[in-house]
Automatic annotation (TrEMBL), chains A, B, C, D:
Keyword annotations from UniProtKB, A to Z: 4Fe-4S, Glutamine amidotransferase, Glycosyltransferase, Iron, Iron-sulfur, Magnesium, Metal-binding, Purine biosynthesis, Transferase
Gene name as annotated: purF
Species for this entry: Candidatus Geothrix skivensis
EC number: 2.4.2.14
Boundaries of every Glutamine amidotransferase type-2 domain copy: 7-225
Family, as annotated: In the C-terminal section; belongs to the purine/pyrimidine phosphoribosyltransferase family.
Pathway connected to this protein: Purine metabolism; IMP biosynthesis via de novo pathway; N(1)-(5-phospho-D-ribosyl)glycinamide from 5-phospho-alpha-D-ribose 1-diphosphate: step 1/2
Protein name: Amidophosphoribosyltransferase
Upper classification of the organism: Bacteria, Pseudomonadati, Acidobacteriota, Holophagae, Holophagales
Length: 453, 453, 453, 453
């Protein structure tokens, strides 16, 4: 629960209401970022941009969407990671350059941003924000290439790290995914319309059919002028390493990610967790919403009844005025309320997706115990998170990850649980149908597929 | 899902941060009304009011709460039922009259509003809105009584129908509940602080302990000047008839309503539904969020696995811009997304709390079927809704209630389900531990405890 | 400059776009009150109200005006005088009572509000605000009368003090002015449309022609159902005493007030001031904007050149963030800037409309002197303001009026002027063509035409 | 009246409250642009930017100013000339580049923007907006120079046209003015604080003393790290050509522009106009506010009385809802109201600053005539405007300038005046104390000091 993904992207081409459909797509991807949103659309007059801080529903009005005409659009929803001038870091970025107008939005983090940025600055380029997306646009613009498409290829050959990109130009909508495929990017269609999205739940809302993922290292070019759609694999082939955390926490349970059902994967994590860490208990309770599927799996496997022993208040928004005399654990209580009548006197298996700093888990365990639970057995649907992510997830620095500096017993004591069990890495691989090579598990292992910058 | 409750009320006394705690209380009651919110606080200078249309989080800013000083407050969150000038109908209502300043907020509907209002108008009174709360205040002000407290009693003797009231004066905070106890009203405390709330989930957030309900026909008077708390039963004793629909749909599952756990009651409804209407099926799927507990009970009783085959997007707010070329079933799809990979090829038991007009159910069944379900068996956790409510729930007129004019088979065909089963009234009574006399079941039976006006 | 008038009213009948024309009318009357604005319109469905705090341009959107249909409307723009809950005191007030829906808005202050209000409260009436307009509506509603029109007459017979009223009912638009005619109220027409306004500048904007004033003590009833327009004089005849300060300060210079040009009157005040208080000087400088016309008259009469030695910044709005280290005289400087190049070394005649507390005048004199003026001779286009107004002008309490407790020499010293001259009362009468009986001069004389409450 | 200037700039250094003082400065310069505003401040952590569309008072809140810490700041207020994405064109522009962070804001237009921009794009640079300020920043960043200061010099050597620039870096605040000095730029101080402003009225508000203008072709470098202030003249010396229109229309009358009083110049224009185009008349009436000073001069010279025969409503803001049935000349009437009682039967000399398209003048003449004027003699305080401006004033294309295609008689007929007189060019020179070489008169003569791009 305490992680924050940085972005969701959505793009569409050959669609009469391109910006409105992109708005819907971003709506479905809102869980991937709530700080800022933007859409760039294209019509024969050029590209049109609107972006601002806030929820999708607040950033876009009828008037704003009317000012985004055209049959192609890309959009972005963002979780800000850098403090300061958030406004200047909203996506998409739009430049006027050698190839006319080019807009780009981006999920993921480059790992060599600083090297590239310094080189570009030394070469005379300027930037308006710290965003690595501006670096990508600069690389594209300065590439030794005659066409925009080749320039994108040249730029991607220099970029390292994680990116699922959507690029809109006067001629094409281009989707690209880094060779490791760190972040997801799905493609689909409805009639002659082509669509791309971080997750398939956005296709469901706009009525598009999921066809396949943009492959790791693949670039898909949809012509805006014709029906042509081309695929290229211009980058050196490496072992793909898509982020397993999308399945553990980020993605919406109704999405397919990497072609697999998120919900099915999570349920299996719960089942394997029950096999690995069984416990005598009366009730399986998820930390809502992210622990729900795993808790169902745990219950199914263990035979211990499942119930919503904690209720989430979905009205909690961005602004919340706390009482001046702070109530203990207030930050957790305003979102989560334990159901005393279910919990009182019970031995509870509390299932969550992960533990980061440990402080929130501690508050939840306390809350459940204060509601009367006799025992609280915490079960975590992934291995201990010991390393930071450099590929697009806003994890704290390593030293703040409790599992990086505390053994299991100490964490158990810290969160005040009666017992604590994490999913085994081998079990996680099993849930993903993986032989141990097919996903990025760096946050559990420190084996970084690409050296962090 | 398609019902709308009209209000939630919260009040607090002998609390340094009365208005801030009331804000929290309303936050927890937000599900009971999202159109308008208001708080009236009292300090030695008098009463202070702030109310406006919108969500609790939008209506109140730090500045607004700072302008509501004092150690007593009452608040209200509202679902507007009358069209037109919504602004003038937000609660609390504050008057300057015979007894100084008096503020009132109200959950429920009087059934003799028009008679009382006409009489008061004939007597020279004026009103600024169509609200029955203004009628109550007028009755109080014009009562043949020397004290405010006696005036309230006199007014309540004239009022018929449903009311859970909170009244704030310069001297007291008064809570009152109609003799049938149609709408809930709980009381609790923390230290010397007394609190009242439509549901106990608000007590959980502010850290108050639930003590008991304000009884049907009871009036509780908390002195603002002393520690005195008095209880009176000034109205003729009748058989209490609290609204069973609070347990079926309105209340938050983590609340106690009428002293019973809502979640426990709902789970039992699901269990009994499984006994009464078993079916061969592969998956029990709730219509989220209101069908979840009953679906868990159905699954538990039937042994058919439970899963979230439909995912709700909680980011859907008040404003949503639809595409111009309306997509089929769009209104349902923006909130609910079927999980194709769970549903494909399955025989699904779809559990919802109730059916009103039938049109939403039809869209959901279609959606589930389009997602690949082989069979869709609809199970409804209450009896057929055949009659309108006159006690505070915004049901459509009787002729729009599908169960009032269609037999079961026709409804089954209309919603395009393979089978349809409602909870039996006797089973519902059983779930509530009732012998058939202890709750209002009028929306299922037409046996109105108080003659509608 | 430092006075604040409380209101402007505008009404119109038999006009297809009644609420939009009223919006324009209020726009033109914005100088009479900037705290709140409201319009009530009537169509066959009833009366429709929209009012809020803020400027006319902010309170009304296209959508708000579209929600005010009908061919009759009344509107109000207000300067709040009471602190606290400003929102509840915006006009018009709309009630549902004996005569159906009745809306009222009001310029002026009743002097027996407290007596009436106490009596009405004792009789069982309630109020939602401290406004005397609510008292008028209550009197109307409770009058011993069979028709709304007679009820208005009965109410006005009880009301004392100042009122220029507009009342909208389902049947009529009624305009009424108190027997002294303290506050202005003009009537006009365009084709079949009848219009009423505090000042004629609003007629100019909507394209109506000024016909005459509603007379002191007159009631004009415009039928909404027919072309009938009737005039009544139902109140005891007394000597009219219209407020002379409208001509000195409040009214827009392009208005006719009491049938006379405000600008012409002010110029004449300046001329007589020059005759009464001549001085050797180089330049006549007005305090903009209220001193401009009198300064022109002074210049014309004296032959001393006129120029804008002080420039007003018209962009100064409601919110202005002051520097933390307050600059001396900042509050005056942000609005008024002295023109150094005109003032340096000059002997300046500084003309303002009036002096209230003296503090602002002192700052302006200092500012002019710091800009290099060698001498500053202050000339005030009215007599010393020694008494508070009880008829609708927001003057400070008597003890704060500098002229009530300081002789001329002391005021001259206090404001740091080289000389100070006020217009003589006899001269003021002369400017108004008055024999001393035709206007209210109470703020200069203490001779109150109606005993203050 | 119908011209729009594009910008005002203000900068300050060695000032504890730099951003708040800049806010004040922009407030005083609001008349130079009302579409957007921005401030960039610098503290030891770097540069901080806030800019948005809207009035200065709306763009900046306390919170926004608190987020602009530091002892140096530059700010800008803007009149948008390009349609489309106005948001991206607000100033200041802030880049991260070779010289670290550099912010720039700019009054004036480059004439070789397109050439420079194309070259920079060919060289691999990219732009986020069409603004010529971005071109300047790119030139600076790519200059063959080792220091920021030399890079600015190199950039200015390439830029042609009009610019009064303020540049903020981590080390310095730099002010620069193009060699012709087309646009004004004043410098002043208060204690150790240095300030720059388009007009001196901003100095008056912040309490700074005007010292002198930044000279045409001069660059003033204020060190942020020391008390050093240096002046350079790095550009080829040419005949200065400051814009005479600042004195005719743009500047606030209380400002010194090019070291001369705007108000004094305007009054002199009126005097010379009266000498050149005398007429038998009863009243001199300005078109407010821009014609006021000239009208005073005309009156003084001619002996014909001056009065405000037209009153301006200063509450007219950005949004104004017009009636659906458009009233004739409504656009003019909502701002300007003729004073019937002054004008009726009179022979009026109507003084305005300039005529652009002629349509507004025509409406004003009609309005004055409808108000009863017997004769309307129009007098314009500048020569006929026959050519477009390319140096920072938003004039229409030449073919829309009525004086470019109509002789005087035809214009007289078009605006329906009884006579029409323009100020002679030689007289204008005289008013400015010029021998005909010292100002840019291109809009009257077509003699462009710099060839338009």
């Amino acid at each position: 629960m305490p992680f924050r993904d940085e972005c969701g992207v959505f793009g569409i081409c050959h669609q009469e209401e391109a910006s409105r459909q992109t708005y819907l797509g971003l709506y479905a991807l809102q869980h991937r970022g709530q700080e800022a949103a933007g859409i760039c659309s294209g019509d024969p007059q050029g590209l049109h941009l609107h972006k601002a801080q806030g929820y999708v529903a607040d950033v876009f009005t009828e008037a704003a969407l009317d000012a985004l005409p055209g049959d192609a659009a890309i959009g972005h929803t963002r979780y800000s990671t850098t403090g300061g001038n958030v406004a200047s870091a909203a996506h998409p970025f739009l430049i006027h350059g050698r190839f006319g107008q080019v807009a780009l939005c981006h999920n993921g983090n480059l790992t060599n941003t600083e090297v590239l940025r310094s080189r570009l600055i030394a070469d005379g380029h300027t930037f308006t924000s710290p965003s690595d997306s501006e670096v990508l646009l600069a690389l594209i613009n300065r590439a030794q290439a005659d066409s925009l498409e080749d320039a994108v290829v040249a730029a991607l050959r220099e970029a390292e790290g994680a990116y699922s990109l959507l690029i809109l130009t006067e001629d094409a909508l281009i989707a690209a995914r880094d060779p490791r495929g760190f972040r997801p990017l799905a493609m689909g269609h409805m009639g002659a319309t082509h669509a791309f999205s971080s997750e398939t739940c956005a296709f469901d809302l706009v009525g598009a059919q999921y066809d396949r993922d943009v492959e790791p290292g693949e670039m898909v070019i949809v012509s805006r002028k014709s029906a042509e759609v081309r695929s290229r694999f211009p980058l050196p082939k490496v072992q793909a390493k898509p982020c397993v955390f999308e399945h553990i926490y980020f993605a919406r349970p109704d999405s397919l990610v990497y072609g697999r059902s998120v919900m099915v994967a999570r349920r299996e994590m719960g089942r394997r967790l029950a096999l690995r860490h069984p416990v005598e208990a009366d009730l399986v309770v998820p930390v809502p919403d992210s622990g729900v599927s795993a808790a169902l799996g745990y219950s199914e496997q263990s035979g211990i009844p499942f119930d919503f022993g904690i209720i989430r208040n979905h009205y909690v928004g961005r602004t919340f005025i706390e009482p001046k005399q702070t109530i203990r654990s207030f930050g957790v209580k305003v979102k989560l309320n334990p159901v005393r009548h279910l919990l009182a006197g019970q031995r509870v298996v509390l299932v969550d997706d992960s533990i980061v700093r440990g402080t929130t888990s501690k508050k939840i365990v306390q809350m459940v115990r204060e509601a009367g639970a006799r025992e609280v057995h915490m079960r975590i649907a992934c291995p201990p998170t010991t390393h930071s992510c450099f590929y697009g997830i806003d994890t704290p620095k390593r030293q703040h990850l409790i599992a990086s500096y505390m053994p299991l017993e100490a964490i158990t004591a810290f969160v005040e649980a009666d017992s604590l069990g994490y999913l085994d890495l081998a079990d996680l691989e099993g849930c993903m149908g993986d032989d141990g090579t097919g996903f990025c598990y760096a946050c559990f292992t420190g084996n970084y597929p690409v050296v962090p910058g």
